[in-house]
Amino acid sequence: MTLRNKLLLAQVPLALALLLLGVLGVSTLGRLGRAGQEILADNYRSVLAMQRIIEHLERMDSAALFIVVDERRRGLELADAHLQPLEAELKVQENNITESGEAEATSQLRRAWARYRSAYEAFATAETPEARRSAYFDALAPAFREAKGATQVILALNQDSMVGKSDALRRQSRQVNTLMVLAVVAALVGGFLASASLTQRALRPVSVLSQAVQRLGQGDLATRAVVEGRDEIAQLARDFNGMAEALLQYRQSSLGELLQAQASSQAAIDSLPDPVVVFGLDGSVLNINHAAEEVLRLSLEGGGALGQVSPEVREVLERVRSHVLGGKGPYLPRGYEESVRLEGPDADRWLLPRGSPVYGEGGGVVGATVILQDVTRLRRFDELKNDLVATVAHEFRTPLTSLRMAIHLCLEEVAGPITPKQADLLFAAREDCERLQGIVDDLLDLSKLQSGRLKLEVRPVSTEEVLESALAPHRAVADERGVRLSSECGLELARVEADPERLQLVLSNLVANAVRHTSRGGEVVVRARHDGARVRFEVADTGEGIAPEHQQRIFEKFFRVPGANSGGAGLGLSIAQEIVQAHGGEIGLSSQPGQGSTFWFTLPGSAREEGQG
Ligand code: ADP
């Protein structure tokens, strides 16, 4: 059955109740109407007849009185007019006897009427007025009273009966009223209950379906709506079940694929031998690999806090994380000296941090991946190389000194006169010795700086003096090469916190490079100015500039721009970088090939100076 038919069927009890009420009402009304009609037929007709008989009797009595007072003709006419109608009414009454005692009263009336008529005959035929008067008073008047009395008895009988019947009718109608009200209430309640229960039965599947939809909404994909039948709701339930099945299959397949993808990406980072830590945007640890668990003793339980990690490693992780999350791009270590030592059970490990941003769909940084590369062996090689370089440089010094001394003595002709050609050769040899000495000195400085053996003697230094003494040795060369060399120093900054000799070395290296790489007619300017709490030094030239691909590596040890005319072994800028960083400063450059370069570095300003100013 369709839902529409079921709903229509549910209305049937109410309709039936209405029908029942209608039938009951019509039949009761009919019964009441009949009772009223009975009163009219049984009693009212008799009452009417009696009233008319009395009327006729009284008119006939008046007629008799006309005859008594000698109005004989008028009296006879009047009496004749009422005789027949009275007879007819009496017949009506005789045919309408309904009450007990009414029959006797009627026959009494008939007898009294017969007597009245015979008395009237005698009265009407009397000859003399005296005879008529005595006939009236002796016979007619008593017969009149008797007949009227009998009529009134019948009248009273019927009126009493009418009153009784109307009382009964009123009672009956009141009962019918009550009965109708009760029947209406009962039919309404019964019909409503039946309709409600039928409607509920017809709509129960809807609530089953709605519960199933709710459960599905809450994520229970295994839920099904059980609705029997072939109506619209059962069809809807079948469609719903089909949809839930499809969803379940989709969820199972997509979840499976998702889990597989996650497992394989986890396996990929687990396969890396170095510890990997993935940070979220809020800085919390999102993921780690096996190596991180084992080497760093880090675990994702407990919110992935870095508390268990040793303080040095934690400091490095936090530094790299804030670098990457701060939007400064990937974090690349400058060298092995940045690696952090991690004490192990057998031997110490050296871990070199690297960080790269994790980008979200919108292209923004949503996290940071930090890899701690195990560079224990590489660092060992680096140390060996540094040691070797330092040892070789050191070993070179003494022979180099005696070589320079020997060449000097030869040039001074201490060992005898030399020819001009020999002198030329010895001059060239002395120049090369000077260069060699410079490189050896650079190498020694660098190895001292890198091994941390070099102690800085930091104190407030007058910037202007440092600038002047750094420029002075280069003025002659600059003049010779036709390069203008100048300095700009803001008067307000007088002092900087630095080791003056080392600072001079940095400036000297930068100025020497600038002069060397600037062609005739060019300019080299050295500036110093405040940069917040720091002091920024700049050495700007108008020389050949440096190609972008070389700018990255320019501070590396032994790096020289290929094909460029270089004075040294590619150590000057590395030394400058080491010294600036040992002061806690930064060094960098900006350069356009063909338009010149600007090398800059920052140093902490003098606190005492600031206090005074
Ligand atoms: P070197 O002592 O050999 O000059 P540096 O470390 O001082 O080594 O410099 C490395 C390289 O950088 C040099 O080979 C040179 O080509 C380049 N360079 C340094 N300064 C400048 C500059 N001001 N202009 C152009 N090139 C420069």
UniProtKB/TrEMBL annotation:
InterPro entries: BphY/WalK/GraS-like, HAMP_dom, HATPase_C_sf, HATPase_dom, His_kinase_dom, HisK_dim/P_dom, HisK_dim/P_sf, PAS-like_dom_sf. Residues 391-607 form the Histidine kinase domain. It is an enzyme of class 2 (transferase). It catalyses: ATP + protein L-histidine = ADP + protein N-phospho-L-histidine. Residues 200-252 form the HAMP domain. It is found in: Membrane. This is histidine kinase. It comes from Archangium minus. The lineage of its organism: Bacteria, Pseudomonadati, Myxococcota, Myxococcia, Myxococcales.
